[in-house]
Amino acid sequence: MKLNTNELPFPPPPAAVEAIRAAAGERLNRYPDPTGLAFRQAAADRLGLEPDWILPGNGSDEILTLLIRTFCRSADSGGDGGGDLIVSPHPTYTLYRTLAEIQNCPFEAVPLNGDWSWNWERVEAVKQRARLFFVPVPNSPSGTVWPAETLERLIPDDGLLILDGAYADFEDGRLGLDLLNGPHGDRIVLTRTLSKSYGLAGLRMGFAAARPEVIAAMAKVKDSYNCDTLALAGGAAALRDADWLDETVRTVLAERERLTDGLTALGFDVQPSGGNFVFCTHPDGQHSARFDMLKERRILVRYFAFKAWPDGTPDGLRITVGTPAETDALLTALESFAV
């Protein structure tokens, strides 16, 4: 039972599957559209933008890589200062640090307060030096959703704020759009993936939304055919099926509430979450032991042990929202745990 990678427990939109089948029978002998125009139009319509504000990517992880390659100088690029600084909060998605290291760019993490709020003294110490500031909304592993006025304070003095919306559809699919359309929108980039809310993790499809000049700069750096024909077709069809998404999100949120209530009844402290997962801790601190017990029963959740987080919990469990049957099995296993 896989509750550790925040995948959707349901099949993707039928319209996406049909579009993939149709594309597979038509023109796989030809290269895909290098600009992904049909997908860009579908993504733009979803967010109320124009297609030249959209850049498709091979999952949103490729978009994160393109941002660094486009806008950051590496430490060995020959310029002054040892490269452009990349920043993210801590704890959060660890890929930000990894991508910075791959591109040989300096990286700094800003430790959050123990309640997952921002320490503004720490933020100000790095914001003026940051070229890219990666912030997931909602955050992972906590599920924290910071309000727009908080996010606006994170915009670097001379750089870009990247609002990574991998889980945005479970809170508000328009998260970050007010900032993108606001007076500082030229320093905002939104990223989205179809791996989570659309159930298309196996397809690898995502995109960036930003001002046209930012998108144009990134387009110069991407590979010619970075998204294949099947992904473009399936992704566009999924984005157009708003009714399917709305119903799926409602189902996930209802099960998230049931999971939260069940964990709370077992004595866990559960963080409020805007994602398709919850982060929880138990007063006895036996998170690693519970993780091992669940793994022995073939129930996979994510165990986090946090380093260099002076104000926060030392560890905890992140659990993906699954089907009702999976929630029942998980709660039954946790109820049987004996310290």
UniProtKB/TrEMBL annotation:
The keyword Electron transport appears for this protein: no
Write down the required cofactor(s): pyridoxal 5'-phosphate
One annotated GO biological process: L-histidine biosynthetic process
Q: Which gene encodes it?
A: hisC
Which InterPro entries does the UniProt entry name for this protein?
A: Aminotrans_II_pyridoxalP_BS, Aminotransferase_I/II_large, HisP_aminotrans, PyrdxlP-dep_Trfase, PyrdxlP-dep_Trfase_major, PyrdxlP-dep_Trfase_small
> Whose protein is this, by species?
Alienimonas californiensis
Q: Which residues carry this modification: N6-(pyridoxal phosphate)lysine?
A: 196
Q: Which residues form the Aminotransferase class I/classII large domain?
A: 1-334
Q: What is the superkingdom listed in this entry's lineage?
A: Bacteria
Q: What is this protein called?
A: Histidinol-phosphate aminotransferase
Enzyme class, one word?
transferase
